[in-house]
Amino acid sequence: MADWIDSLPESAREFLNGKRLDEVECVISDLPGIARGKAVPASKFARQQYFHLPDSIFYQTITGEWAEAAGDEGFIEKDMILKPDMSTASAAPWTGDTTIQVIHDAYDRKGNPVPCSPRNVLKRVVQLYKDQGWQPVVAPEMEFYLVARNIDPAKGIEPMMGRSGRPAAARQAYSMTAVDEFGPVIDHIYDFAEDQGFEIDGITQEGGAGQLEINLRHGDPVKLADEVFYFKRLIREAALRHDCFATFMAKPIADEPGSAMHIHHSVIDMETGKNIFSGPAGGETDAFFHFIAGLQHHLPAAIAVLAPYVNSYRRYVKDFAAPINLEWGRDNRTTGIRVPLSGPEARRVENRLAGMDCNPYLGIAASLACGYLGLMEEKRPEKQFKGDAYEGEEDVPRVMGDALDLFEESTALANVLGPEFCRVYSIVKRAEYNEFLQVISPWEREHLLLNV
Fold first, then answer.
1. Of 31, 150, 348, 357, which sits most exposed with the smallest number of CB within 10 A?
2. What is the gyration radius of the CA atoms in the chain, in angstroms?
3. Taking the alpha carbons of 281, 283, 288, 289 in that order, is the dihedral positive or negative?
4. Which region among 73-77, 277-281, 349-353, 364-368 has the lowest average model confidence (pLDDT)?
5. Beta partners for residue 43, in sequence order
6. Confidence (pTM)
């Protein structure tokens, strides 16, 4: 046991310093990004090299139903072999006993990566970059709301009560006073993050009532996706300690801005260590423009991954801090694709389309896939947009069904993400969308019942 614990990452060893490890949570992300797995005694984990879960977990919808393909005659539920990635070992500091979490990778019986596993999808895309001698680098930004407890789905979501005893106020972006309102929750987020070895680049108040943003330092896409996967659980647990909920819905409150997971990308030449978006004299390179063109040409097909639920499309509203098109511009937050101010070595491209409700592995994979296709196709983007992009044409799908149509038609995106993953993802999302269409909303009852 001691030898095994000595091999853990430093943050996990520090968390266990002087403590007896009780339990290990063996986890893997499903399609929505929910942690699935098993909790085992530490003594048993020390002896096991893998464990099994059925591959049908990737056919489960967000409501807990099973997509029809899982019951098709040709579908046979098989056990996957889940092997731990010990570099992901991390504290679970909110548990009652001393527990660590370990993310696992999924393989079939022949040792091949299971193509529907979100972490494997991202690894596949990263490997395509590496095959070209490139190392992709990302930096995700996480927006979320702290809201009052809500146990009645028929009731609207309300902002949480702040430290002052008043509901959280809207339109207070970057206000330090507003951040102080959530001080106790934020303190717990920092404490949990420190226990887990995560470095937060900053926390700010966003424009919505009770809306916060956490920035993470740039780095390896798989490592950053692991952190976002862990952070969602961490933040929820911190909120529960203070009698409120943390929600990552794209649009939880009407008339308030939605929550995004903005993704910053750059690409490093593995041989030289240089950013391929910047030339020797510091200018913008062809690769920089090819990457932008890839986002413009292929993001419409990827929206179904970046905006995975019917609620996701409520975020794409004019003048509500979310893009409505795929224009690109320098230091322009109204465009879907933004080039932030930076020096040549830090030149990067920001995708502002992804919602915080997307699976972080799949959202980052889809965004990188679009950029990769641009680099390979060597196309040029449309002319830079100057001014208010909300005055431009809308070219973002507004409903889930349209987004899925584009996703299913894109063979280029499927070849990068993996055809089998795209097939299963489409089946699951069609099932969710059809289930939603069977629900009659309060708006329909109020305005159509007696008027049509």
1. 150
2. 22
3. negative
4. 73-77
5. none
6. 0.94
